[in-house]
């Protein structure tokens, strides 16, 4: 096949435009990292690495320390701090005899050993959702420590927030007065019906624990234990109770976040004796 040969004197005229175009295109097609957006991406990646690398190293190191036992978990650290707070409160705020009488006095439902070294007083409201939430933990704790702990239950109905709270407290006191050994079942039933209290409901729960229908109705309608309930409310106000539930351990006011913290308080109070 014949080939067209470009004369020498014409080659420069043919190739020069082609070479100039190629050079121009090479100059225009810069590498991505030399373009503005590429520079920004590189800087962002560098900053991200500077942040992530130390963070990853600290996390790995922290986990290794926990596994080796040289460092406590956040929850353990929180409990250790709480234990210190309890120790401090027990040392700095021991109650006087009068304060203890105000906190623990009066006629109130109790569970446990009256001679126990640990006495827990709870001021509570049957329509308080926080009282309802902590109650299973208190019941579980007492079922395990009834021989060495005394629980004293005191009324602190906050009528401004819970219009039926005083009625529920009155019903509970009637149940305790008429059937002390069935009281805690009635107590749990009141929490189960929180926000839906009624006389018929009270009567049904009273009959279920062995209280005659008319006996309970007479107690409730005559408001027989109303003075004991009001005394409990007054004592709570004098003791500095501002909300429910409020707990006192041997007369010292302490918070109870959950059952595990209840065990911590119990241990520290017993050790302080």
Radius of gyration: 38 Å
Shape: elongated
Please mark out the parts with pLDDT under 50 across 5 or more consecutive residues, or reply none. 1-6, 14-19
CATH class designation of the largest domain: Alpha Beta
How many helices? The count is 11
User: What is the succession of H and E elements?
Assistant: HHHHEEHEHHHHHEEH
Into which percent range does the helicity of residues fall?
Answer: 55-70%
Which structural class fits the helix and strand makeup? Answer: alpha+beta
CATH superfamily of the largest domain: Glutaredoxin
Number-wise, the strands total 5
Reported by name, the CATH topology of the largest domain is Glutaredoxin
Terminal CA distance reads 115 Å
Q: Strand fraction band? A: 5-15%
- Major sheet size, sense and barrel closure: 5 strands, mixed
Number of domains: 2
Mean pLDDT: 85
In the CATH hierarchy, the architecture of the largest domain is 3-Layer(aba) Sandwich
The order of strands across the largest sheet is 1-3-2-4-5
């Amino acid at each position: 096949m014949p080939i067209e040969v470009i004369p020498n004197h014409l080659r420069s005229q043919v190739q020069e435009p082609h070479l100039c175009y190629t050079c121009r295109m090479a100059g225009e097609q810069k590498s991505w990292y030399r373009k503005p957006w590429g520079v920004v991406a590189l800087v962002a990646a560098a900053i991200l690495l500077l942040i992530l690398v130390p963070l990853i190293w600290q996390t790995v190191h922290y986990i290794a320390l926990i596994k080796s036992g040289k460092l406590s978990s956040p929850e353990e650290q929180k409990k250790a701090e709480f234990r210190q707070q309890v120790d401090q409160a027990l040392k700095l705020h021991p109650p006087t005899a009068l304060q203890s009488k105000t906190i623990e006095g009066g006629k109130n439902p109790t569970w446990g050993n009256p001679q126990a070294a640990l006495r827990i007083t709870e001021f509570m409201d049957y329509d308080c959702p926080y009282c309802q939430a902590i109650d299973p933990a208190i019941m579980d704790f007492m079922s395990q420590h009834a021989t060495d702990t005394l629980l004293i239950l005191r009324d602190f109905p906050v009528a401004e927030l819970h219009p039926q709270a005083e009625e529920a407290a009155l019903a509970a006191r009637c149940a305790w007065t008429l059937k002390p050994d069935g009281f805690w079942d009635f107590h749990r039933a009141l929490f189960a019906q929180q926000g839906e209290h009624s006389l018929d409901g009270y009567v049904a729960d009273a009959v279920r624990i062995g209280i005659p229908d008319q006996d309970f109705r007479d107690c409730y309608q005559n408001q027989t234990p109303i003075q004991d309930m009001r005394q409990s409310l007054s004592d709570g106000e004098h003791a500095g109770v501002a909300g429910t539930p409020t707990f006192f351990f041997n007369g010292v006011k302490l918070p109870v976040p959950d059952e595990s913290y209840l065990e911590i308080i119990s241990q520290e109070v017993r050790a302080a004796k």
